[in-house]
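Ex. 9. Protein: Putative cuticle protein.
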Amino acid sequence: MKLVLLLCLIAVAVAAQIPTFDSNQNARILYQNYENKFGSYKFGFRQSDGIRHEQEGFLNNFGQENENLSVKGSYSWLGPDGVTYEIDYTAGEDGFKPDISQGPGGGIPPQILGSMAG
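Predicted structure tokens for Putative cuticle protein:
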């Protein structure tokens, strides 16, 4: 009986050391940048919970009828399964075009992941 109790206590102690994903935890901003110039912008941030986002945009054909904004960037996060998911993207006249990837052990099957990309 003492052995069972000891094993239970060890299991509880080990489980307490395993990091878990908590969507309610407070994340700290580790890095933040924003630049705004005429005809372009750039921003980025990284958080302590693994979330990252970087983006830059450019104004094309300023003052013309076909004036538009082209954007490229990426964002990533650490999922509850411990896998990092990342989306690189461009957006412009042709719409939003993502390139989606996941780290080893990701939960999205490759055939579905491929169909999600632009």
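Check your answer against this statement. Helices lie at 2-17, 110-116.
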